[in-house]
Design brief:
The protein is built from 9 helices and 6 strands. It has helices at residues 14-21, 38-44, 49-70, 89-105, 107-112, 128-141, 157-170, 180-184, 232-243, and strands at residues 30-34, 74-81, 115-120, 147-155, 197-200, 219-222.
Amino acid sequence: MINSFRNLIEEGSEEEILLRKIDKDRIPVHIAVIMDGNGRWAEQRGLKRKDGHKEGAESAKKIAEYALRSGVKYLTLFAFSSENWKRPIKEINALMNMLYENLIKEKDLLVKNDIKLRIVGDMERLPSKLKRKLVETMELSRFHKKMLINLALNYGSRMEIINAVKKIVEANIPSLKINEKLFSKYLYTTNCPDPDLLIRTSGERRISNFLLYQIAYSELYFTPTLWPDFRLKEFLKAILDYQERNRRFGKV
């Protein structure tokens, strides 16, 4: 595994020491991330909040690369919640424009690395230009197989669950046939295993309406590191912490 990171780390560095401790056979299959702290990162440096989001987008790109190199198969990134519409309109517009520009700029990375992109959330409220580009990018990458990135946009877990119930009712499925496997098919994350590890940055210790159904047995990792500072060393620390857990799933 260390060879896949060889061009990113220096010999004897803290990153290399951490990497050597990782068991390559116990890498989480699915990692979900609440990317928190962009605004505070910018404010601490006397910058505009949009500068924090720009640096946060760079962290998202880096973490996707690290996850791919590690052998992670599914990565879910919480980019914009259904509650984030309460933010100032100027900040929202800057975020939407940045997402659009990044889709154009990073399109070739999905092709080059065989990464599939899927949007989880309600795209209807997103700007038309962004929505078209998202659909185009998902179509471009739909047959890619090395890793799936779920990008959570205008996402709220309670609404996701309510929408799943509505779809089941509309399909006239008898109550006796409803079980966990069937219910999961009606969620945004259909055909995706539940997260093994959920990471939240910035020191906050709450789930914030994210994947409430899917994280029933996920390992939770909270770090004070702000998202723009969450790079390889922090990613490796999270993986090591996960590997130190004893996942019993209700067993002794």
